[in-house]
Amino acid sequence: MYNIDMTVGDDMYLKRDIEEKLIEASKTFASITIYGSRQVGKSTLIENLFPNIKYITLDDIEIKDYALRDPKGFLKYYGKPLLIDEIQKAPKLLEYIKKEIDEMKKECLANDENIKLLYILSGSNQFELQDAITESLAGRTCIFNLASLSYNEIKERKKHSSFNPEISILKNKENINHFRSRKEIFEDIMLGGMPEYVVNKLNRDMFFKSYITTYIEKDVRKIISSDKETVFMNFMKYVALRTACQLDYTEISRSVGIDTRTVKSWISVLEMSGIIKLIYPYAKNLSDRVIKTPKLYFMDTGLATYLCGMPTADILEKSAFAGAFYETYVVSEIIKSFYNNYKDTSCIYYYRDKDQKEVDLIIEEFDSIYPIEIKKGLNPVSHSKTFNVLKKYNKKVNIGLVLYSGDQILPINDEVYYCPIDFIGY
């Protein structure tokens, strides 16, 4: 196996929390696959972590054409180990990668050698890539999700873990040197986590305008007709205003001027390219009173605030959208902490019933659940009555949390605690 060089060639490179898990996987898998939207730092991460691996991207038209015409010759020409970005654009490559992995495994078994890492694959179209991987490389590749930078990564905090809502664990965490004020949190919401934008302090309008243009040209244009690009842009702007809300396809259809079938298709486009994340309601086959509509969250609040035309953090904090963007930021930070520690996000839900009783988040752990509310500040009203609606599921309802912009873990009562959002990922 080649040596893994942990030194960073670029002084501005921010260490990613996912690195430890990637290195671990590289020692036991012949292939690693990384999903993630454009500009979240997939290529930069891999090039810094595995500097001895040759990098190619199928965004290059000539390289993609070669891969499509002669996938076997393509792999032979570039050799191994090899990093192939936007691999979903030449799915035929995966059949030949599968054969090479199987042949290498046979040789290693015969010679009593460890499995070698042959390929690192990445792509910005998760579902398209996932379908191809499932069909061709099931059991042969270790799959990771990479989102934009978390607060933990931006501030280079050395400790990182997936968010654990267990109050005894939260109480025992080491003291955090700095807790953000609400003003600082909204500045971070406006900033988002796109690595190039954050690290290089680029012009906000220029960066996000270019980002969206590239996204539509490379990921969306093949799905929608060219005369619909402006409509799709308006659709993205409207959906950004609905972040942290339940999906209402009819409302979006009426507001944007497209049919509901197109709305559902375009929501899938945003989801499959990692722009948004859908959180589904907690039901577990009980009570038809539970609404089955998912909630939508943007995974990068910087992009979402740009799409909404928010000019400053101060204006955002005072706007009617402050609560929704605060909730979006907290949920995206929790999801990032799960991604970075290779933890499945399918245990994250929300709750709302026809009586309008709500719980912002539910994290399910085996035979118990953790209810979580997300609030900008302290509110003396008890949340235990809201959380009590979950007892009908015959699962243990653990001590709940209210994630807020404070600096202390404080009891509301025996069943609910305030917890600073700065504990997420730490």
Shape: globular
- Fraction in helix: 40-55%
What class would the helix/strand composition place it in?
alpha/beta
Low-confidence spans: 1-10
Terminal-residue CA separation: 33 Å
Radius of gyration: 22 Å
DSSP E strands, number: 15
Tally the helices: what do you get? 18
- Calculate the mean pLDDT score and round it: 89
- What share of the residues does DSSP label as strand, in percent? 15-25%
**Largest sheet report:** 10 strands, mixed
Which short descriptors sum up this protein?
426 residues; alpha/beta; ten-stranded mixed beta sheet; 18 helices; 15 strands
Topology:
Elements: H1 19-26, E1 31-35, H2 42-49, E2 54-57, H3 61-69, H4 71-78, E3 82-85, H5 92-110, E4 119-123, H6 126-136, E5 141-145, H7 151-154, H8 167-171, H9 182-191, H10 195-200, H11 204-220, H12 229-241, E6 245-246, H13 249-256, H14 260-272, E7 276-281, E8 295-298, H15 301-307, H16 313-318, H17 322-340, E9 348-352, E10 358-365, E11 368-374, H18 384-388, E12 396-397, E13 400-404, E14 410-413, E15 416-420
Parallel strand pairs: 1-4, 1-5, 2-3, 3-4, 7-9, 11-12, 11-13, 13-15
Antiparallel strand pairs: 6-8, 7-8, 9-10, 10-11, 14-15
Helix pairs in contact: 3-4, 4-5, 9-15, 13-14
